[in-house]
Amino acid sequence: MMRRLFIFAAAAVMMFSCKPEGGGNVIPKPDDGGDQLPENLTNLTVYGKVLDENGQPYPGVVMTDGYNFTETDAEGFYRFEKYRYASFVQCSLPPEAVVSTGGTYKLPDNHYKRLSSLTKEYNFTLRRQQPEKRFRILALGDPQVHNASQVARYRQTAVNDIRQYVVNAEKIPTYGITLGDNVGDAWEFFPDIAGTYGDMSMPVFATIGNHDHEFPTDNDAASRKKYEAVFGPSNFSFNRGDVHIVIFDNVLHGAKASSDYVQGYEAWQLEWLKKDLSFVPKSKSILLSVHIPLTDSEILNLISQYASALVICGHTHKVENTYDKTVGGKKITITAAGSTGAPWKGLILSDGCQRGYKVYEYDGTSVKREVYKSIQYEEPFQMRLFRTTDFPSFTSANGNIFAFPYFGGDYIAVNVFNYKPGWKVVLKENGAVTSSNPVPSYSFDVWAKLFMYNYHKVDSDVGKNHHMLYFKVKDPKSDISVEVTDEFGATFSGGTFTTTQDIPDYDN
What we know:
Layout: H1 2-13, E1 45-52, E2 62-64, E3 69-71, E4 77-81, E5 88-92, E6 101-102, E7 107-108, E8 112-114, E9 124-126, E10 134-140, H2 148-168, E11 174-178, H3 190-198, E12 204-205, H4 220-223, H5 225-231, E13 236-240, E14 243-247, E15 251-253, E16 261-263, H6 267-278, E17 285-289, H7 297-303, E18 309-313, E19 325-327, E20 330-336, E21 356-363, E22 366-374, E23 383-387, E24 394-395, E25 401-402, E26 411-416, E27 424-429, E28 432-435, E29 439-440, H8 446-456, E30 468-472, E31 480-485, E32 491-494
Parallel strand pairs: 1-9, 10-11, 11-12, 14-17, 17-18, 18-20
Antiparallel strand pairs: 1-4, 2-3, 2-5, 5-8, 6-7, 10-21, 13-14, 15-16, 19-20, 21-22, 23-26, 24-25, 26-30, 27-28, 27-31, 29-30, 31-32
Helix pairs in contact: 2-3, 6-7
Protein backbone atom coordinates (compact mmCIF):
# COMPACT_ATOMS: atom_id res chain seq x y z
CA MET A 1 0.00 0.00 0.00
CA MET A 2 2.77 2.43 0.87
CA ARG A 3 4.52 1.82 -2.46
CA ARG A 4 1.35 2.25 -4.47
CA LEU A 5 0.47 5.51 -2.71
CA PHE A 6 3.94 6.82 -3.32
CA ILE A 7 3.59 6.14 -7.05
CA PHE A 8 0.36 8.12 -7.11
CA ALA A 9 2.08 11.01 -5.32
CA ALA A 10 5.07 10.87 -7.64
CA ALA A 11 2.80 10.94 -10.67
CA ALA A 12 0.94 13.89 -9.21
CA VAL A 13 4.18 15.84 -8.86
CA MET A 14 4.42 15.89 -12.64
CA MET A 15 1.16 17.81 -12.78
CA PHE A 16 2.11 20.53 -10.25
CA SER A 17 1.90 24.12 -11.39
CA CYS A 18 3.86 25.41 -8.46
CA LYS A 19 6.20 28.30 -7.93
CA PRO A 20 8.56 27.41 -5.11
CA GLU A 21 9.81 30.58 -3.44
CA GLY A 22 8.84 32.84 -6.33
CA GLY A 23 9.25 30.97 -9.62
CA GLY A 24 6.99 28.66 -11.59
CA ASN A 25 4.95 27.78 -14.65
CA VAL A 26 2.51 30.01 -16.49
CA ILE A 27 -1.03 29.46 -15.24
CA PRO A 28 -3.82 29.44 -17.84
CA LYS A 29 -5.83 32.66 -17.92
CA PRO A 30 -9.37 32.70 -16.56
CA ASP A 31 -12.39 33.32 -18.69
CA ASP A 32 -13.21 36.91 -19.70
CA GLY A 33 -16.17 37.23 -17.38
CA GLY A 34 -18.67 35.78 -19.82
CA ASP A 35 -20.20 32.35 -19.85
CA GLN A 36 -17.22 30.60 -21.40
CA LEU A 37 -15.37 28.11 -19.24
CA PRO A 38 -11.55 27.88 -19.26
CA GLU A 39 -10.31 25.78 -22.15
CA ASN A 40 -8.96 22.24 -22.11
CA LEU A 41 -10.87 21.09 -19.06
CA THR A 42 -10.44 17.47 -18.00
CA ASN A 43 -12.41 15.37 -15.58
CA LEU A 44 -9.93 16.32 -12.85
CA THR A 45 -9.60 20.04 -13.54
CA VAL A 46 -10.16 22.34 -10.57
CA TYR A 47 -10.03 26.10 -10.98
CA GLY A 48 -11.29 29.35 -9.49
CA LYS A 49 -10.40 32.81 -8.28
CA VAL A 50 -9.21 34.20 -4.98
CA LEU A 51 -10.42 37.76 -4.44
CA ASP A 52 -10.37 40.19 -1.54
CA GLU A 53 -13.42 41.74 0.10
CA ASN A 54 -13.44 44.48 -2.55
CA GLY A 55 -13.49 42.01 -5.42
CA GLN A 56 -9.83 42.68 -6.26
CA PRO A 57 -7.52 39.81 -7.26
CA TYR A 58 -5.47 38.14 -4.54
CA PRO A 59 -2.27 37.00 -6.29
CA GLY A 60 0.34 34.67 -4.84
CA VAL A 61 -2.02 32.57 -2.72
CA VAL A 62 -0.82 28.95 -2.46
CA MET A 63 -3.59 26.51 -3.46
CA THR A 64 -3.63 22.73 -2.99
CA ASP A 65 -5.92 19.73 -2.98
CA GLY A 66 -3.73 18.06 -0.38
CA TYR A 67 -1.55 16.55 -3.13
CA ASN A 68 -1.06 19.05 -5.98
CA PHE A 69 -0.14 22.72 -5.74
CA THR A 70 -0.33 25.98 -7.62
CA GLU A 71 -0.41 29.72 -6.89
CA THR A 72 -2.94 32.34 -7.89
CA ASP A 73 -1.77 34.56 -10.76
CA ALA A 74 -1.98 38.35 -11.09
CA GLU A 75 -5.73 38.08 -11.66
CA GLY A 76 -6.26 35.83 -8.63
CA PHE A 77 -6.85 32.81 -10.87
CA TYR A 78 -5.68 29.27 -10.15
CA ARG A 79 -6.03 25.95 -11.91
CA PHE A 80 -4.64 22.46 -11.45
CA GLU A 81 -5.46 18.84 -12.06
CA LYS A 82 -6.64 17.42 -8.77
CA TYR A 83 -5.76 14.05 -7.34
CA ARG A 84 -8.58 11.63 -8.09
CA TYR A 85 -9.35 10.90 -4.44
CA ALA A 86 -8.84 14.42 -3.04
CA SER A 87 -11.59 15.71 -0.74
CA PHE A 88 -10.75 19.42 -0.42
CA VAL A 89 -9.34 22.39 -2.26
CA GLN A 90 -7.38 24.52 0.19
CA CYS A 91 -5.62 27.86 0.34
CA SER A 92 -2.70 28.48 2.65
CA LEU A 93 -3.98 31.72 4.16
CA PRO A 94 -1.48 34.56 3.62
CA PRO A 95 -0.35 36.52 6.69
CA GLU A 96 -2.39 39.54 5.62
CA ALA A 97 -5.63 37.53 5.27
CA VAL A 98 -8.14 37.44 8.12
CA VAL A 99 -8.98 34.01 9.56
CA SER A 100 -12.77 33.96 9.34
CA THR A 101 -15.00 31.61 11.29
CA GLY A 102 -18.49 30.39 10.50
CA GLY A 103 -20.62 27.41 9.68
CA THR A 104 -22.38 25.19 12.17
CA TYR A 105 -19.49 25.12 14.64
CA LYS A 106 -18.03 28.64 14.17
CA LEU A 107 -14.64 27.15 13.26
CA PRO A 108 -12.14 28.63 10.76
CA ASP A 109 -13.83 28.17 7.38
CA ASN A 110 -12.14 30.29 4.71
CA HIS A 111 -9.07 28.12 4.11
CA TYR A 112 -10.82 25.19 2.41
CA LYS A 113 -13.83 24.06 0.38
CA ARG A 114 -15.12 20.53 0.00
CA LEU A 115 -14.70 19.06 -3.45
CA SER A 116 -17.76 17.83 -5.32
CA SER A 117 -17.84 15.64 -8.42
CA LEU A 118 -20.37 18.08 -9.89
CA THR A 119 -18.25 21.21 -9.42
CA LYS A 120 -15.01 22.35 -10.98
CA GLU A 121 -14.98 26.00 -9.92
CA TYR A 122 -14.10 26.94 -6.32
CA ASN A 123 -13.77 30.62 -5.54
CA PHE A 124 -12.41 32.12 -2.31
CA THR A 125 -12.85 35.55 -0.78
CA LEU A 126 -10.19 36.64 1.71
CA ARG A 127 -10.51 39.81 3.75
CA ARG A 128 -7.26 41.77 3.98
CA GLN A 129 -5.66 43.10 7.16
CA GLN A 130 -2.30 44.33 8.32
CA PRO A 131 0.04 41.33 8.85
CA GLU A 132 0.19 40.37 12.51
CA LYS A 133 3.78 40.72 13.64
CA ARG A 134 2.67 39.88 17.17
CA PHE A 135 0.14 37.19 17.91
CA ARG A 136 -0.65 34.46 20.43
CA ILE A 137 -1.18 30.70 20.05
CA LEU A 138 -2.99 28.64 22.68
CA ALA A 139 -2.02 24.95 22.39
CA LEU A 140 -4.85 22.76 23.67
CA GLY A 141 -3.83 19.17 24.23
CA ASP A 142 -6.15 16.15 24.15
CA PRO A 143 -9.66 17.21 25.17
CA GLN A 144 -10.50 13.50 24.58
CA VAL A 145 -14.13 13.59 25.63
CA HIS A 146 -15.95 10.26 25.84
CA ASN A 147 -19.53 11.30 26.61
CA ALA A 148 -21.93 14.20 26.92
CA SER A 149 -21.10 14.89 30.58
CA GLN A 150 -17.42 15.28 29.73
CA VAL A 151 -18.28 17.69 26.92
CA ALA A 152 -20.30 19.70 29.41
CA ARG A 153 -17.44 19.57 31.92
CA TYR A 154 -14.94 20.69 29.28
CA ARG A 155 -17.18 23.61 28.42
CA GLN A 156 -17.65 24.56 32.07
CA THR A 157 -13.95 24.44 32.92
CA ALA A 158 -11.70 24.75 29.86
CA VAL A 159 -13.90 26.88 27.60
CA ASN A 160 -14.83 29.35 30.31
CA ASP A 161 -11.20 29.60 31.45
CA ILE A 162 -9.93 30.22 27.91
CA ARG A 163 -12.61 32.82 27.17
CA GLN A 164 -11.66 34.70 30.32
CA TYR A 165 -7.96 34.41 29.56
CA VAL A 166 -8.44 35.89 26.08
CA VAL A 167 -10.40 38.77 27.60
CA ASN A 168 -7.85 39.50 30.33
CA ALA A 169 -4.61 38.98 28.37
CA GLU A 170 -2.85 41.67 26.39
CA LYS A 171 -4.92 42.52 23.35
CA ILE A 172 -3.05 40.84 20.53
CA PRO A 173 -4.55 38.45 17.93
CA THR A 174 -5.09 35.03 19.51
CA TYR A 175 -5.60 31.63 17.89
CA GLY A 176 -6.18 28.17 19.34
CA ILE A 177 -4.81 24.88 18.05
CA THR A 178 -6.03 21.57 19.46
CA LEU A 179 -3.32 18.92 19.59
CA GLY A 180 -5.39 15.86 18.69
CA ASP A 181 -7.63 13.37 20.48
CA ASN A 182 -10.52 15.77 20.33
CA VAL A 183 -12.66 12.81 21.37
CA GLY A 184 -11.84 9.48 22.98
CA ASP A 185 -13.03 6.96 20.36
CA ALA A 186 -16.46 8.61 20.62
CA TRP A 187 -16.80 10.04 17.12
CA GLU A 188 -20.46 10.90 17.56
CA PHE A 189 -19.27 13.73 19.83
CA PHE A 190 -17.21 15.49 17.13
CA PRO A 191 -20.00 18.05 16.62
CA ASP A 192 -20.31 18.65 20.37
CA ILE A 193 -16.61 19.25 21.00
CA ALA A 194 -16.36 21.34 17.82
CA GLY A 195 -19.14 23.50 19.23
CA THR A 196 -17.09 24.16 22.36
CA TYR A 197 -14.15 25.33 20.23
CA GLY A 198 -16.44 27.69 18.39
CA ASP A 199 -17.33 29.33 21.71
CA MET A 200 -13.75 30.07 22.77
CA SER A 201 -13.68 33.72 21.56
CA MET A 202 -10.87 32.96 19.11
CA PRO A 203 -10.46 30.94 15.90
CA VAL A 204 -9.58 27.34 16.84
CA PHE A 205 -7.88 24.97 14.39
CA ALA A 206 -7.97 21.24 15.11
CA THR A 207 -5.29 18.54 14.83
CA ILE A 208 -6.30 14.90 14.41
CA GLY A 209 -5.21 12.33 17.01
CA ASN A 210 -5.24 8.55 17.24
CA HIS A 211 -8.57 8.53 19.11
CA ASP A 212 -10.09 10.70 16.36
CA HIS A 213 -9.63 7.89 13.80
CA GLU A 214 -12.71 5.72 13.42
CA PHE A 215 -12.42 1.93 13.57
CA PRO A 216 -13.04 -0.60 12.32
CA THR A 217 -12.81 0.80 8.79
CA ASP A 218 -11.04 -0.20 5.59
CA ASN A 219 -7.91 1.93 6.01
CA ASP A 220 -6.38 5.11 7.40
CA ALA A 221 -8.13 7.32 4.85
CA ALA A 222 -11.53 5.86 5.70
CA SER A 223 -10.86 6.25 9.42
CA ARG A 224 -10.49 10.05 8.97
CA LYS A 225 -13.82 10.60 7.24
CA LYS A 226 -15.96 11.37 10.30
CA TYR A 227 -13.29 13.73 11.64
CA GLU A 228 -12.92 15.56 8.33
CA ALA A 229 -16.70 15.84 7.95
CA VAL A 230 -16.65 18.18 10.97
CA PHE A 231 -13.16 19.72 11.09
CA GLY A 232 -12.08 19.76 7.44
CA PRO A 233 -8.68 18.64 6.12
CA SER A 234 -6.30 16.73 8.37
CA ASN A 235 -3.25 18.33 6.71
CA PHE A 236 -3.22 22.06 5.97
CA SER A 237 -1.25 25.23 6.53
CA PHE A 238 -1.74 28.96 7.08
CA ASN A 239 0.44 31.97 7.83
CA ARG A 240 0.45 34.51 10.63
CA GLY A 241 3.05 37.27 10.64
CA ASP A 242 6.46 35.74 9.96
CA VAL A 243 5.35 32.25 10.99
CA HIS A 244 4.17 29.44 8.72
CA ILE A 245 1.83 27.16 10.68
CA VAL A 246 1.29 23.55 9.60
CA ILE A 247 -1.28 21.14 10.99
CA PHE A 248 -0.08 17.62 10.16
CA ASP A 249 -1.55 14.18 10.79
CA ASN A 250 1.31 12.04 12.16
CA VAL A 251 -0.92 9.14 13.23
CA LEU A 252 -0.76 6.20 10.82
CA HIS A 253 -3.82 4.18 11.76
CA GLY A 254 -4.49 0.57 10.82
CA ALA A 255 -8.19 1.21 11.55
CA LYS A 256 -8.86 -2.21 13.11
CA ALA A 257 -8.79 -1.31 16.80
CA SER A 258 -8.12 1.63 19.11
CA SER A 259 -4.49 0.60 19.60
CA ASP A 260 -3.88 -0.14 15.92
CA TYR A 261 -1.69 2.88 15.13
CA VAL A 262 1.90 4.12 15.04
CA GLN A 263 3.56 7.49 14.70
CA GLY A 264 3.89 7.93 10.95
CA TYR A 265 2.33 9.11 7.71
CA GLU A 266 1.73 7.96 4.17
CA ALA A 267 4.12 8.85 1.37
CA TRP A 268 1.82 11.44 -0.19
CA GLN A 269 1.72 13.37 3.11
CA LEU A 270 5.47 13.88 3.10
CA GLU A 271 5.33 15.00 -0.54
CA TRP A 272 2.56 17.43 0.38
CA LEU A 273 4.61 18.83 3.26
CA LYS A 274 7.69 19.27 1.09
CA LYS A 275 5.70 21.14 -1.55
CA ASP A 276 3.93 23.25 1.06
CA LEU A 277 7.23 24.30 2.64
CA SER A 278 8.78 25.00 -0.78
CA PHE A 279 6.62 28.14 -0.96
CA VAL A 280 7.93 29.42 2.39
CA PRO A 281 11.06 31.63 2.50
CA LYS A 282 13.77 30.22 4.73
CA SER A 283 13.74 33.48 6.70
CA LYS A 284 10.35 32.53 8.16
CA SER A 285 9.65 30.35 11.19
CA ILE A 286 7.74 27.10 11.31
CA LEU A 287 5.13 26.10 13.87
CA LEU A 288 4.16 22.47 13.36
CA SER A 289 1.22 20.90 15.19
CA VAL A 290 1.12 17.09 15.40
CA HIS A 291 -0.47 14.71 17.86
CA ILE A 292 2.33 12.31 18.78
CA PRO A 293 5.66 13.81 19.95
CA LEU A 294 7.70 14.06 16.76
CA THR A 295 10.75 11.86 16.17
CA ASP A 296 10.65 11.59 12.37
CA SER A 297 14.02 12.60 10.91
CA GLU A 298 12.72 13.60 7.46
CA ILE A 299 10.26 16.10 8.88
CA LEU A 300 12.81 17.38 11.39
CA ASN A 301 15.31 17.92 8.57
CA LEU A 302 12.72 19.84 6.56
CA ILE A 303 11.74 22.28 9.30
CA SER A 304 15.32 22.73 10.53
CA GLN A 305 16.04 24.79 7.40
CA TYR A 306 14.00 27.75 8.66
CA ALA A 307 14.71 30.60 11.05
CA SER A 308 13.25 28.63 13.93
CA ALA A 309 10.99 25.64 14.42
CA LEU A 310 8.54 24.83 17.20
CA VAL A 311 6.63 21.55 17.33
CA ILE A 312 3.58 21.35 19.58
CA CYS A 313 2.00 17.99 20.36
CA GLY A 314 -0.35 16.19 22.73
CA HIS A 315 -0.84 12.44 23.25
CA THR A 316 1.12 12.08 26.50
CA HIS A 317 -1.31 13.80 28.90
CA LYS A 318 1.75 15.50 30.32
CA VAL A 319 3.47 18.87 30.19
CA GLU A 320 6.93 17.99 28.92
CA ASN A 321 9.78 19.99 27.40
CA THR A 322 12.24 17.14 27.00
CA TYR A 323 11.65 16.12 23.38
CA ASP A 324 13.91 18.77 21.80
CA LYS A 325 16.07 17.76 18.85
CA THR A 326 19.18 19.34 17.35
CA VAL A 327 19.32 19.00 13.58
CA GLY A 328 22.13 20.52 11.54
CA GLY A 329 23.24 22.50 14.55
CA LYS A 330 19.79 24.04 14.99
CA LYS A 331 17.61 23.34 18.01
CA ILE A 332 14.02 22.31 17.32
CA THR A 333 11.76 22.73 20.32
CA ILE A 334 9.21 19.92 20.71
CA THR A 335 6.80 20.39 23.57
CA ALA A 336 3.64 18.71 24.89
CA ALA A 337 0.62 20.15 26.68
CA GLY A 338 -2.57 18.67 28.10
CA SER A 339 -6.04 20.04 28.76
CA THR A 340 -7.76 16.94 30.10
CA GLY A 341 -7.07 14.95 33.26
CA ALA A 342 -5.22 11.66 33.41
CA PRO A 343 -7.44 11.17 31.41
CA TRP A 344 -10.70 12.51 32.81
CA LYS A 345 -9.80 11.34 36.29
CA GLY A 346 -9.55 14.66 38.03
CA LEU A 347 -8.25 18.04 37.00
CA ILE A 348 -4.64 16.87 37.12
CA LEU A 349 -2.60 15.42 34.28
CA SER A 350 -0.60 12.23 34.39
CA ASP A 351 2.45 14.15 35.66
CA GLY A 352 0.68 15.90 38.53
CA CYS A 353 0.29 19.21 36.70
CA GLN A 354 -3.03 20.94 36.83
CA ARG A 355 -4.63 20.45 33.44
CA GLY A 356 -4.30 23.46 31.21
CA TYR A 357 -2.80 24.79 27.98
CA LYS A 358 0.41 26.27 26.64
CA VAL A 359 0.48 29.92 25.61
CA TYR A 360 3.01 31.07 22.99
CA GLU A 361 3.40 34.73 22.09
CA TYR A 362 5.23 35.45 18.83
CA ASP A 363 6.94 38.66 17.84
CA GLY A 364 8.34 38.33 14.33
CA THR A 365 9.97 34.94 13.93
CA SER A 366 10.55 34.31 17.62
CA VAL A 367 8.54 33.20 20.62
CA LYS A 368 8.94 36.09 23.04
CA ARG A 369 6.85 34.65 25.83
CA GLU A 370 5.68 31.19 26.83
CA VAL A 371 3.65 30.17 29.84
CA TYR A 372 1.62 27.19 31.00
CA LYS A 373 -1.86 28.31 32.02
CA SER A 374 -3.63 26.02 34.49
CA ILE A 375 -7.38 25.77 34.04
CA GLN A 376 -9.31 27.45 36.87
CA TYR A 377 -6.14 29.00 38.29
CA GLU A 378 -4.51 32.37 37.69
CA GLU A 379 -1.42 32.46 35.51
CA PRO A 380 1.08 32.80 38.42
CA PHE A 381 0.14 29.28 39.60
CA GLN A 382 3.11 27.40 38.12
CA MET A 383 4.13 24.82 40.74
CA ARG A 384 3.21 22.69 43.72
CA LEU A 385 5.42 22.29 46.80
CA PHE A 386 5.55 19.23 49.05
CA ARG A 387 7.27 18.38 52.32
CA THR A 388 8.46 14.88 51.53
CA THR A 389 7.76 13.66 55.06
CA ASP A 390 4.06 14.27 54.39
CA PHE A 391 4.21 11.52 51.75
CA PRO A 392 5.79 8.29 52.97
CA SER A 393 6.26 5.62 50.33
CA PHE A 394 3.31 3.33 49.66
CA THR A 395 2.85 0.06 47.81
CA SER A 396 -0.10 -0.40 45.47
CA ALA A 397 -2.19 -3.55 45.20
CA ASN A 398 -0.14 -4.39 42.12
CA GLY A 399 3.05 -4.33 44.16
CA ASN A 400 4.31 -1.02 42.73
CA ILE A 401 6.21 1.19 45.18
CA PHE A 402 5.82 4.97 44.95
CA ALA A 403 8.05 7.38 46.85
CA PHE A 404 9.90 10.65 46.53
CA PRO A 405 13.58 9.82 45.85
CA TYR A 406 14.73 12.44 48.37
CA PHE A 407 12.90 11.87 51.64
CA GLY A 408 13.25 13.38 55.08
CA GLY A 409 12.42 16.38 57.23
CA ASP A 410 14.98 18.57 55.51
CA TYR A 411 13.86 17.84 51.91
CA ILE A 412 11.10 19.45 49.92
CA ALA A 413 9.85 18.44 46.47
CA VAL A 414 8.68 20.93 43.84
CA ASN A 415 6.66 20.10 40.74
CA VAL A 416 7.37 23.02 38.34
CA PHE A 417 4.81 22.46 35.62
CA ASN A 418 6.58 23.97 32.59
CA TYR A 419 10.15 23.53 33.82
CA LYS A 420 13.03 23.50 31.35
CA PRO A 421 16.69 22.81 32.06
CA GLY A 422 18.46 26.13 32.41
CA TRP A 423 15.73 27.90 34.34
CA LYS A 424 16.81 29.66 37.49
CA VAL A 425 15.15 28.03 40.51
CA VAL A 426 15.98 29.21 44.04
CA LEU A 427 14.96 28.21 47.54
CA LYS A 428 14.17 30.98 50.02
CA GLU A 429 14.01 30.57 53.78
CA ASN A 430 12.55 33.51 55.70
CA GLY A 431 12.92 35.59 52.53
CA ALA A 432 16.64 34.91 51.98
CA VAL A 433 17.99 32.70 49.20
CA THR A 434 19.59 29.63 50.76
CA SER A 435 20.00 27.47 47.66
CA SER A 436 20.06 27.95 43.89
CA ASN A 437 20.90 24.34 43.07
CA PRO A 438 17.80 22.15 43.04
CA VAL A 439 18.31 18.46 42.30
CA PRO A 440 16.26 17.39 39.28
CA SER A 441 15.02 13.83 39.32
CA TYR A 442 12.89 11.89 36.87
CA SER A 443 10.37 10.76 39.45
CA PHE A 444 6.73 10.54 40.49
CA ASP A 445 4.63 13.32 41.87
CA VAL A 446 3.63 11.14 44.83
CA TRP A 447 0.73 13.39 45.78
CA ALA A 448 -0.78 12.88 42.31
CA LYS A 449 -0.09 9.17 42.42
CA LEU A 450 -1.71 8.87 45.84
CA PHE A 451 -4.77 10.77 44.69
CA MET A 452 -5.24 8.59 41.62
CA TYR A 453 -4.78 5.42 43.63
CA ASN A 454 -7.09 6.37 46.51
CA TYR A 455 -9.89 7.95 44.49
CA HIS A 456 -9.80 6.00 41.25
CA LYS A 457 -8.18 2.72 42.33
CA VAL A 458 -5.57 2.86 39.55
CA ASP A 459 -1.81 3.12 39.71
CA SER A 460 -1.12 3.38 35.99
CA ASP A 461 -2.46 6.83 35.03
CA VAL A 462 0.28 8.87 36.71
CA GLY A 463 3.80 8.45 35.40
CA LYS A 464 7.19 9.87 36.22
CA ASN A 465 8.06 13.32 34.89
CA HIS A 466 11.10 15.49 34.20
CA HIS A 467 9.92 18.54 36.14
CA MET A 468 10.28 17.28 39.72
CA LEU A 469 12.97 19.24 41.64
CA TYR A 470 14.26 18.70 45.18
CA PHE A 471 15.83 21.07 47.71
CA LYS A 472 17.54 20.32 51.01
CA VAL A 473 16.46 23.06 53.39
CA LYS A 474 18.53 24.46 56.24
CA ASP A 475 15.65 25.04 58.64
CA PRO A 476 12.43 23.04 57.96
CA LYS A 477 10.58 25.33 60.41
CA SER A 478 11.42 28.48 58.48
CA ASP A 479 9.10 30.31 56.07
CA ILE A 480 9.92 28.43 52.85
CA SER A 481 9.24 29.51 49.27
CA VAL A 482 10.55 28.66 45.81
CA GLU A 483 11.12 31.19 43.04
CA VAL A 484 11.40 30.25 39.35
CA THR A 485 12.64 32.43 36.49
CA ASP A 486 12.07 31.19 32.94
CA GLU A 487 14.11 31.82 29.79
CA PHE A 488 12.10 34.96 29.01
CA GLY A 489 12.79 36.56 32.39
CA ALA A 490 9.34 35.95 33.88
CA THR A 491 9.43 35.07 37.58
CA PHE A 492 6.92 32.92 39.47
CA SER A 493 6.93 31.92 43.11
CA GLY A 494 5.21 29.41 45.36
CA GLY A 495 5.09 29.15 49.12
CA THR A 496 2.10 27.00 49.96
CA PHE A 497 2.69 23.32 50.63
CA THR A 498 0.29 20.71 49.29
CA THR A 499 -0.59 17.90 51.68
CA THR A 500 -2.47 14.61 51.49
CA GLN A 501 -5.59 16.52 52.55
CA ASP A 502 -5.52 18.68 49.42
CA ILE A 503 -7.72 16.89 46.93
CA PRO A 504 -8.18 18.32 43.42
CA ASP A 505 -11.60 18.58 41.88
CA TYR A 506 -12.29 15.48 39.81
CA ASP A 507 -14.76 13.94 37.41
CA ASN A 508 -16.45 10.65 38.24
